[in-house]
Specification:
alpha/beta; six-stranded parallel beta sheet; 14 helices; 16 strands; 14% strand; globular
Length: 390
């Protein structure tokens, strides 16, 4: 098949690479630097498996920003463009997804389209009706940053929103690129509304779990109770489980903040308490952490890494940025150590490139996640990284 994948972020690039082992894939991307890197088989993303596959695997993959070339003879299109949360409308900005669908519709070629971008519940049905195009399918992705390709190889489940022939074709494509055996994981087809709901409710549940253990930690810190012992004790219960329970400064990154708020928006006409509380809890946790840091009365505070977690190159919506902004609002000088930032300043705060200089100049180091790089300075580190894991 000739497949066009629109967008080369975590989702799009991992799919492009894996599909191009079996099919001719064109990655349509607007970032010229990404295009050059992909065509030179250099990964623009920090993901060890993507790096390995680009360097060592035989791939029928070409990246381009030429729409005519990308769509000219494709058999299907997979949309992986970002749907950022729009603060004014309080919902996903789906303009990039709709732009692709509109362009494809105007080509007067009836190839199927698979949406892998995260969208509001009901979006697929609305867009099918708007453009009178029935073969638009939605399939949620469940990928972790830094492990996107791995999670496509070994998915927890494959879900496709549609029961038509095109939906079955896309389901078979997703199974083909995986390393799983038949019947080893759930592979489900369902309505598009249901598939969209699976995505948003899954991420909101994960956000709820993060918020729960963070609030547990807030209580323990305020009452001088050992957080680690409490979490270990309750996690022995198999119904709770010993996973996804390490406290943090809050949930962040590409998915959880926007997906929880979008789901809350979908609840406009539905009574709820928990969904609203999950969104509110993340803000409360950041307020609590910032207040604890501010109360220590240091004049110069170092922020160690802005990335969301270890093994990630994403700083967007990372929780520690919320902490940093609250600290700065109190007039405290903030220094930043983040190797992924080339600029001299980040939102007005000095970026220090040398780790030793950063350690020396910071009276207190604030770290959402500790690494060996600073672990010897525990006496001057504020963190809630209890288990030293993401």
């Amino acid at each position: 098949m000739k497949i066009t994948v629109v967008g080369s972020g975590y989702v799009g690039l991992s799919l492009s690479i894996l599909l191009s082992q079996f099919h001719k894939v064109t990655a349509l991307e607007i970032d010229k630097n990404k295009i050059k890197q992909i065509n030179k088989r250099i990964s623009p993303i920090d993901d060890k498996d993507i790096i390995h596959y680009l360097k060592n695997k035989k791939l029928n993959l070409t990246a381009t920003d030429d729409k005519v070339k990308a769509y000219s003879d494709c058999d299907c299109v997979i949309i992986c463009t970002p749907t950022n949360y729009h603060e004014e409308t309080n919902q996903f900005d789906t303009s990039s997804v709709e732009g692709v669908i509109k362009y494809c519709k105007n080509l007067n070629r009836d190839f199927p389209i698979l949406i892998k971008s995260t969208i509001p519940v009901g979006y697929t049905e609305r867009i099918k009706e708007k453009y009178l195009k029935k073969n638009i399918i939605f399939s949620p992705e469940f990928l972790r940053e830094g492990k996107a390709l791995y999670d496509n190889l070994y998915p927890s489940r494959i879900i496709v929103g549609g029961k038509c022939d095109d939906a079955i074709m896309f389901k078979e494509l997703l199974f083909q690129i995986s390393q799983i055996s038949e019947n080893s994981i759930p592979i489900e087809t369902m309505g598009s509304n249901e598939a969209e709901s699976v995505k948003l409710f899954s991420n909101t549940y994960l956000a709820m779990r993060i918020a729960f253990f963070n609030e547990l930690d807030s209580y323990c810190e305020m009452h001088s109770i050992e957080t680690k012992d409490v979490i270990k004790g309750i996690s022995y219960d198999p119904r709770i489980g010993n996973y996804y329970n390490n406290p943090s400064f809050g949930y962040g990154g590409y998915c959880l903040p926007k997906d929880t708020r979008q789901l809350l928006k979908n609840y406009d006409d539905v009574p709820n308490n928990i969904i609203q509380a999950i969104v509110d809890a993340n803000r409360t946790r950041k307020d609590f952490i910032a207040d604890r840091i501010i109360s220590k009365n240091y004049k110069t505070i170092g922020i160690y890494r802005l990335v969301m977690k270890k093994g990630s190159d994403n700083i967007r919506d990372s929780a520690i940025q919320g902490i940093m902004k609250r600290i700065k609002a109190k007039g405290i000088e903030v220094l930043i150590y983040e190797p992924r930032i080339n600029e001299e300043k980040f939102f007005g705060s000095k970026v220090i490139k040398n780790i030793d200089e950063f350690k020396q100049k910071s009276e207190l180091i604030v770290a959402n996640r500790i690494s060996n790089e600073i672990s010897s300075l525990r006496h001057k580190i504020y963190t809630r990284d209890i288990f030293r894991e993401n």
